[in-house]
Every structure is written in structure tokens, then in C-alpha cells.
Design goal:
By secondary structure, this protein is mostly beta strands. Strands 9-11-14-13 form a four-stranded antiparallel β-sheet, with no helix packed on it. The protein has a four-stranded mixed β-sheet with strand order 10-16-15-12, with no helix packed on it. Strands 1-2-6 form a three-stranded antiparallel β-sheet. β7 and β8 form a beta hairpin. The chain starts with a helix and ends with a strand.
């Protein structure tokens, strides 16, 4: 138990009070978003990656927040690749910022102002914030509520390739085909979520279904985008029947033939969009983006 508790990232601990509050009183809308610093990774060349996510305190409200004074990462910003389309609840390990090996005691500050409230996340190389794949898998819930176990040893992120141009243009009301190929090493083995037991409805740590899955979603852009077929949620909807890998009773759908997922995305409104394709095995992820310019 001691080892497993130690594997929880500081960001998860920092959100404990918010999670406890959420159990006491939930809101469908009207609440703000808290940026979250998940931790830092080190690379063989000596450089580092700062990893960030967020906690949208609402259960239903999706918030669009363009890059600017209300959604900024400084110094060096305000745009450093952060999302502008924020799904409800906890979204972990959403984006990464590469920093040089001489980053030292510097820090980056992500500021979000929503519903009149400003919150900040401070990204630094403090030793307590070091993370690796084991920590990431534990925080996704890949081994269940226990934290981690030997079934995750050797897991590698899915291999993902998105066909076609990474920048596309079309008119409002039109659709595009999105084709992605993903494979995985079979670790962890596919595991569905247990059905809700009213006698044990509370969760003390995150739990997730495992097995290769793939979803497209809006990472940046304001306007309606309809995916056909509908995509699996990428945020932690832990409610019974919530339809996400963190929901009671959820099972990972079968991988399509040849590992090829084909989706159509229809855009109603003009604007610039970033669509993200996320391959997830329940523990580790791989993502690719496609930028779409929609003209009137």
C-alpha cells in the first residue's frame, strides 16, 4: 500500500480537496476550470517535458476559452499549445511543453480565468513532481483502484498514424473523412469496468477500463462539430451510465479490422479548429492533431 500511494502524482493529491467537495455538492454548470500541473518528464538528451491537464468543476458545461489573457502560459506565451475547448471534470496529461536542459529553477505559469475566477498552475522541475509511465498509468486507473501492479510492466504507448494532410480546408456545413490506424502491445490486457454496486458506490482513487481505444475530439475551436460515429468520451465521466472508460459497466469496443478507424466530422460554423486523435490503452496514450480551416 505504501508503494502504491507513493505512485500518485502530486497533481492528484492537490485535487483531493476538490474531489471531496465534488462528492458533497455537484454542479452541472457555472463553475470554473482549475489548471493542473501533472509533473515533469526527463529525456535522454537532458531536456524536459512539462505535463499539464485541468479540472473543469462542472459535470455538463463545456467551456471554450481562446488563447489570450484568460488562457495564457507565460513566459514565452500566451500560446504554448494548451487547449481552448475544455471538457467537464478531470482531464489528465492533456498537453506537454518541451523545455531545455538548462531550464533550472525557472517555471511556467498557466493562467485560466472562467466564470469570473482566476486560477494558476505553476510548472517547475521540483523533484516531487517527477513522473514516468508508471505514475501516468496509475493515475489513469490502468490497474484499477489499487494504483499499480505487475500487469502493467513493459507497457508501451499505442502506435498511431493519421492518414492524409495535417491541415485541411472546407466550407461550413461540409464534412471530412478522418482515417487513423492504431496498434498496441496488448498491455494491459482488456478489462471492463465493474457494474455499479450500490453498497460500494464511492471511489477513493481513479479506476478505468483498459484495452486499445481511439477517439477524435475538438481540442481547439468554437462551433459545433459532429462526429459520425459518435466518439468515446475522453474525460473522466465516473457516473453510472456516463458512457466513458471511467464509467461503471463500460467496456472497450472491439478494435476495427486492420486497426483502422474511419470517422466523418461535420462542421457547422466557420473558424479554425484543431481536432485531436487520441489512441489510449487505458494506461498510456499517443495523440496526433489535424488543423481544419472552415470557411463561410
Amino acid at each position: 500500500m505504501t508503494m502504491r500511494r507513493a505512485l500518485l502524482v502530486p497533481a492528484a493529491i492537490a485535487c483531493a480537496a476538490a474531489a471531496t467537495f465534488a462528492q458533497q455538492e455537484s454542479f452541472s454548470s457555472g463553475q470554473n476550470i482549475a489548471p493542473v500541473y501533472e509533473g515533469w518528464e526527463q529525456h535522454a538528451d537532458g531536456s524536459f517535458t512539462l505535463v499539464l491537464g485541468y479540472f473543469n468543476r462542472n459535470w455538463e458545461e463545456v467551456i471554450d476559452l481562446p488563447v489570450g489573457a484568460d488562457n495564457a502560459i507565460e513566459p514565452g506565451g500566451p500560446d504554448q499549445g494548451q487547449p481552448t475547448h475544455f471538457f467537464p471534470r478531470r482531464n489528465r496529461f492533456v498537453f506537454r511543453i518541451r523545455v531545455p536542459k538548462d531550464f533550472g529553477k525557472k517555471e511556467l505559469v498557466w493562467t485560466l480565468t472562467t466564470h469570473g475566477k482566476t486560477e494558476r498552475a505553476y510548472a517547475s522541475l521540483k523533484p516531487d513532481y517527477f513522473i514516468d509511465d508508471t505514475v501516468i498509468m496509475a493515475n489513469y486507473g490502468a490497474a484499477g483502484m489499487g494504483g499499480t501492479d505487475s500487469s502493467l510492466i513493459g507497457n508501451k504507448p499505442p502506435v498511431l498514424h493519421v492518414d492524409g494532410d495535417k491541415r485541411r480546408t472546407l466550407k461550413a456545413g461540409e464534412s471530412i473523412a478522418l482515417v487513423a490506424v492504431a496498434t498496441d502491445d496488448g498491455i494491459p490486457k482488456p478489462r471492463g469496468m465493474q457494474r455499479l454496486n450500490p453498497a460500494f458506490a464511492s471511489r477513493f482513487t481513479v479506476d478505468s477500463a483498459t484495452g486499445l481505444r481511439l477517439s477524435w475530439f475538438v481540442y481547439r475551436g468554437v462551433g459545433a462539430v459532429v462526429f459520425d460515429p459518435p466518439q468515446t468520451k475522453v474525460w473522466e465521466d465516473t457516473r453510472d451510465g456516463g458512457g466513458s472508460p471511467w464509467s461503471y459497466g463500460w467496456r472497450t469496443p472491439p478494435v476495427p479490422p486492420d486497426g483502422t478507424w474511419t470517422v466523418r466530422a461535420t462542421f457547422r460554423d466557420p473558424g479554425s479548429y484543431v481536432l485531436r486523435c487520441l489512441a489510449h490503452d487505458g494506461g498510456l496514450t499517443t495523440a496526433e492533431d489535424v488543423t481544419v480551416l472552415v470557411t463561410p
